[in-house]
């Protein structure tokens, strides 16, 4: 056997499964940081990703918030984009044809302004067999009616999740906000209501002040904090949720490199999402995939699933 | 559009607070259009976290070291030190590495015309150089360059070498005519009512340029600056109010992807906000 064959044999498997969805690796973008995929296609082959997650979609197009919408903070950024999106019909017409070129599963993130809209979105997305799964946003903190009510109240969250579950014919991932006292209460509520997987965490609500002008740095007053600054909070919450529910958990929050992703996997996340890092480095995700593979080789692991949930507690 | 790690060839102070950086950039000569920009990651770590956008001043070839090798391509940016990112940038030296993403955005829509007027305010001069290089081929090009004082007047002789007629004005009269660049523009428009105007600079200057060009039906293109996270149309953090925008029916344009150059009639001028200088963001495109 020559060296090349030996190398091939040692190729670790990065494939994971989430709610019946097989991903070639556990790395996917966080909604809202990757556009509709096309924006990042010049930088790498999107088929290198475990999945593509779209910007959050609503029934009608949404113009978004006034500016300034973003502010850089220590090792992070605040955003109050306001869920600007083209709307589900324009997505189907203008964005889907591009995404169909790829074999990697497409996950649509969506939200509604009312229970009815959530239900209607779930029905509309069910018409589209090319979508592998849907990620339900009940946690975006930016728009007053954009979901914060659902995402912070266990009963409201359960209500919207069970409604969507009834109308959706594909795996349902529910994305949780960290802006609650006890995230495990929310996780249990959405699992019982029919979530097939849980994604956490969304951004942490924050605020920043321009001290020279004594003014707000975001027109919206508050925004969602993301980036490396939030990672330890995210790892803690993902760990708590993994301990609480049976459904698979997707970990997200401040991942910029393979080591960061591994923290989430080791505490039990079945996959990870990369957000703000895409802005900092458009090739962050393929680098993370390569880093996971290298880690497996170094650790003598042939299947990434052996890493997932492998935390050694004292 | 590409993202790559590259080498700084030089980084010099042009006038107090203003720097010119030349960076090795294979492929940029053919790929860069006048008015496009690039993003620089000034630190390998997370401080600052985001890349900084800079207008492309010019591209060019450096003679190769050895015969038979292709000439090396470079890109130049001019920048003003205004925040954390540019403070780090100014301390980088020849041979240091930076990550570069670009060229990005839509450049100027270059239209042949007998009379072309470029209006630059301070560091807003940057995207006008490559434009001038192209426009001198088809008509008379005038650069009206304004600043608060002489330190803000950059690279004017380089425009002159292209064959551009230059008119300098400063608020304090420390260089050129004392007064606003728009006073000069008004006189030129009276003389050349069929000129085309291209402008980049602070928002109050752009607004004044628009107010001169609009009633005269002089075609105007402006290059805007904005704080942004991604530069490729994904974060939607750099939007500006497009024509027809209202609070009940908002309409936003993405500076990085749909701009940074806009036709004046694409924008909602009454509601446009200032770029980096006045929005409370730390840094914007220059």
Give a brief rundown of this model.
The complex is a heterodimer of chains A (314) and B (286). Chain A contains ten helices and 16 strands. Chain A has 314 residues and is an alpha/beta fold.
Helices and strands in order:
The complex is a heterodimer of chains A (314) and B (286).
Chain A: H1 3-9, E1 16-18, E2 21-23, E3 27-29, E4 52-53, E5 70-73, E6 76-79, H2 88-99, E7 106-110, H3 115-126, E8 133-137, H4 148-152, H5 154-167, E9 172-175, H6 183-192, E10 197-200, E11 204-206, E12 209-210, E13 215-216, E14 223-226, H7 231-244, E15 249-252, H8 258-266, E16 271-274, H9 276-280, H10 284-299
Chain B: E1 2-15, E2 18-24, H1 28-31, E3 37-41, E4 52-55, E5 58-62, E6 72-80, H2 84-90, E7 97-104, E8 115-121, H3 128-135, E9 140-147, H4 156-161, E10 165-170, E11 177-178, H5 181-191, E12 196-200, H6 203-216, E13 220-223, E14 239-241, E15 252-254, E16 261-263, H7 276-279
Parallel strand pairs in B: 8-9, 8-12, 9-10, 10-11, 12-13
Antiparallel strand pairs in B: 1-2, 1-7, 2-6, 3-4, 3-7, 5-6, 13-16, 14-15
Shape verdict of chain A: globular
Mean pLDDT of chain B: 91
Uncertain runs of chain B with pLDDT below 50, 5 residues or more?
276-286
Proportion in β-strands of chain A: 15-25%
Amount of helix of chain B: 10-25%
Query: Biggest β-sheet of chain A: count, sense, barrel?
Result: 8 strands, parallel
> How would you describe the oligomerization state of the chains in this entry?
heterodimer
The share of residues in helices of chain A is 25-40%
> How far from one another are the termini of chain B?
19 Å
Could you characterize what this model shows?
- The complex is a heterodimer of chains A (314) and B (286).
- Helix content of chain A is 33%, strand content 18%.
- Chain A has 314 residues and is α/β, with parallel strands linked by helices.
- In chain A, the strands form 4 sheets. Chain A has an 8-stranded parallel sheet. A 4-stranded antiparallel sheet of chain A has the order 5-6-14-11, with no helix packed on it. A two-stranded antiparallel sheet of chain A has the order 1-2.
- In chain A, β12 (209-210) and β13 form a beta hairpin.
- The relative contact order of chain A is 0.16.
- Residues 140-147 of chain A have low confidence and may be disordered.
- Chain B is of the alpha/beta class and 286 residues long.
- Chain B is built from 7 helices and 16 strands.
- Chain B has helices at residues 28-31, 84-90, 128-135, 156-161, 181-191, 203-216, 276-279; strands at 2-15, 18-24, 37-41, 52-55, 58-62, 72-80, 97-104, 115-121, 140-147, 165-170, 177-178, 196-200, 220-223, 239-241, 252-254, 261-263.
- Chain B has a 7-stranded antiparallel sheet with strand order 4-3-7-1-2-6-5. A 7-stranded mixed sheet of chain B has the order 11-10-9-8-12-13-16, with helices on both faces. In chain B, strands 14-15 form a two-stranded antiparallel ribbon.
- In chain B, α4 links the parallel β9 and β10 (165-170).
- Mean pLDDT of chain B is 91; it is low at 276-286.
- The interface between A and B is large, with 38 and 36 residues.
